[in-house]
Structures are given as structure tokens and as C-alpha cells.
Design a protein that fits this description.
The radius of gyration is 21 Å and the shape is globular. The protein folds into two domains: about 150 residues, Glycogen Phosphorylase B (Rossmann fold); about 170 residues, Rossmann fold (3-Layer(aba) Sandwich). About 40% of the residues lie in helices and about 15% in strands. The strands form two sheets. The protein has a six-stranded parallel sheet with strand order 3-2-1-4-5-6, sandwiched between helices. Strands 9-8-7-10-11-12 form a six-stranded parallel sheet, with helices on both faces. By secondary structure, the chain is an alpha/beta fold. The longest helix is centred in the first third of the chain and has 17 residues.
Length: about 350
């Protein structure tokens, strides 16, 4: 059975789809799985040993360069239809992903209108699966695959299929994912600085990634005049993942790279404020999400915090109790158990 999975982006969403691929291989054999994925995130799909072929879909680039986009879509359609898929599963539930699923031809399955992020996308599917939007993203996609392929939804822990962490006791390196999208999801920079100091004093080397100029500037400020801090070069997902699995532990805000780290099996502490860990929390073998539930506005699910900068002691205030000391103590306990 030839199956195409459509999950275009973003990094965290692609990571969330990996366990469903593992489920399908274990529960619906014989099956051959291809994956249509946005340029930049396709490296994650390629990491799963059960994925036969990855179809790179550079929609973002095509939108900027229309002539290239039209010819690219035509070539993509021909390539997809040459595979003669028995089923196409749109695991994203957006109009753009449903369109890519339609390009592939063959029967299509996806979330129904009540479950999809963009309800109109459901009109593209012959099989529509209802999955509660109150479930975690990983569980939602596992349920979608089970319904589309006709097996009982597995109750086992999710298997991401990625190479696991290789850290040993002497690997005294930690990886701090300080960059994310929404301003409300950012842990205060002063907290990061304090956490870096604690890690260095404890004898660890701190690795700081960055994906844009703003994150690079923050990483360089955190590393300034400090031995034992490495600002990593801006590289691809493969290179960053290679660094993560050689670390003893990871601290991450709600970000795609944090979700990838959690899937690796390395101990990870997630820092959550505005977003809801019940729906998009980090998932993995050794993960703990720290969050504030004292404030009535948490989780607000807002890009920008409603509190003005300077009006509260810690901004965003939902991180006030997620202190550097608490974060380091929690990570240290996880790393000690692992070693």
C-alpha cells in the first residue's frame, strides 16, 4: 500500500507527525510511506527510517517567485501522480496542505470540518476523521492515521523513530533553546543569563543556537565575557540535531527546535507561559514542562502579553515562578537519573 503523508510545516508540527508514521508502519503493513514537506523542514521527515521518499514542497519560495512556482507545481503534480498513491493523508488540515494532497490524486483522508484548523480544507477529503481539538497535537495525528488506515488507535507511548541521544556522564554540555516566535512565549533574557551562569558554575558547557539575527544577538549577549558558552553557527536542522543528541540535557521555550529535542530522548525541560502544554507541550521519553497556573489568564494563547513591560516584576508574568533556580534543579535531577 502506497501512502503519502502531507505535513508541510512548521518544525514542531512535522515532529508531531513522526509517531503517527511509526504507528502506521507497525499497524498497517505492508505499507510504503512518502512525505510531502515544506523546504527547510524536510530534513526531519528524512530522519524517520520508515519514510521511503520525501517530496520537498517549497511553497514559501514559490509564492515569492510566481513563474518558478507555476512550473514547480506542475512538476510536483507529475511527480506525485507517478507514485499512484492508494491513500493520501493530510495531517495538517489547512487549505494549502489539502491542495497539495489534491495534487497527488487518489483517495484522500483528513480531519473533518470540526477538527481541521481551517474547516474548508475538509472539502478536499473523501474520508473525514473527527478528532477532538482538545487533545494534544501528537495524539490528534495518531488518531487521524488510525482512522484513515483502519486500525485501533495505539495506547502506547509515541515512538518518534529518531536517532537517540548519546550523552554520557562525561558529556557535560547543555543546550539552551532561547528562541521562539511569539513575544509572549519568550522566557526573560535576564533569566536565561542567570541560568547560563548557574550551568557554567556547575561545570557545564552551554550551547546556544540561533536561527535569525535577533536570536544571534541574544546568544552573543548571553555568551559575552563568559568562558564555557558556545554560540553555534547558524546551520541546518541536521547539524543542530547532531549537537542536541550529544548533550546531557536541554532547556527550551515552546519552539520547534524544543519539540525536536524532546523527540530525541535527551532530558528536556520545557518553559511554558502563554501557550498550553496540554495541547502543544513537549513530548518525549524524558520531558517535563514547567508552567505557571496561578494567574487566571494562563494560558492566554495570545501572541503579545496583555501586561505592559515594566508594569510587572517579570515579563511576561506567567514566567515569574519558572525561575532559573527551579529550571536548573529540575534539569539536574533529570540528568542525574539518566546517568
Amino acid at each position: 500500500m502506497n501512502v503519502l503523508v502531507v505535513k508541510l510545516s512548521s518544525m514542531g508540527d512535522v515532529v508531531h507527525t513522526l509517531p503517527a508514521v511509526s504507528d502506521a508502519i507497525a499497524n498497517a503493513p505492508p505499507i510504503s510511506i512518502d512525505w510531502a514537506c515544506e523546504e527547510g523542514f524536510d530534513a526531519i521527515a528524512r530522519m524517520h527510517p520508515g519514510v521511503h521518499e520525501v517530496m520537498t514542497v517549497p511553497l514559501r519560495r514559490w509564492r515569492r517567485q510566481r513563474r518558478e512556482g507555476l512550473s514547480g507545481l506542475s512538476a510536483l503534480r507529475s511527480r506525485l501522480r507517478s507514485r499512484h498513491y492508494d491513500l493520501v493523508i493530510d495531517a495538517q488540515g489547512l487549505v494549502k496542505s489539502a491542495f497539495v494532497a489534491w495534487l497527488a490524486g487518489g483517495p484522500r483522508a483528513g480531519f473533518d470540518a470540526a477538527s481541521a484548523r481551517e474547516p474548508f480544507a475538509a472539502k478536499f477529503y473523501g474520508t473525514r476523521i473527527n478528532v477532538s481539538r482538545e487533545r494534544h497535537a501528537v495524539a490528534r495525528i495518531r488518531a487521524l492515521f488510525a482512522g484513515a488506515l483502519g486500525y485501533d488507535e495505539p495506547q502506547t507511548p509515541p515512538q518518534f523513530g529518531l536517532p537517540g541521544g548519546q550523552a554520557r556522564t562525561e558529556d557535560r554540555r547543555v543546550f539552551f533553546v532561547h528562541g521562539t516566535t511569539w513575544p509572549s512565549k519568550h522566557w526573560p533574557e535576564a533569566f536565561w543569563s542567570e541560568l547560563v551562569g548557574i550551568a557554567i558554575r556547575t561545570g557545564f558547557t552551554v550551547l546556544l543556537p540561533h536561527g535569525n539575527d535577533e536570536e544571534q544577538g541574544r546568544a552573543e549577549r548571553l555568551a559575552r565575557e563568559r568562558a564555557g558558552v558556545v554560540v553555534l553557527p547558524r546551520g541546518g536542522i541536521d547539524a543542530l540535531y547532531g549537537e542536541i543528541i550529544r548533550c546531557a540535557g536541554v532547556v527550551s521555550v515552546d519552539s520547534g527546535l524544543g519539540h525536536l529535542a524532546a523527540a530525541s530522548g535527551v532530558p528536556v525541560i520545557g518553559l511554558y507561559g502563554a501557550t498550553d502544554p496540554r495541547l502543544t507541550g513537549l513530548v518525549g521519553k524524558d520531558v517535563l514542562d514547567l508552567h505557571e497556573d496561578r494567574l487566571p489568564c494562563v494560558p492566554c494563547l495570545r501572541r503579545d502579553c496583555a501586561f505592559r513591560q515594566g508594569s510587572v516584576a517579570v515579563h511576561p508574568p506567567c514566567f515569574e515562578d519558572v525561575t532559573p533556580e527551579r529550571v536548573w534543579a529540575t534539569l539536574s535531577a533529570r540528568m542525574s537519573v539518566r546517568n
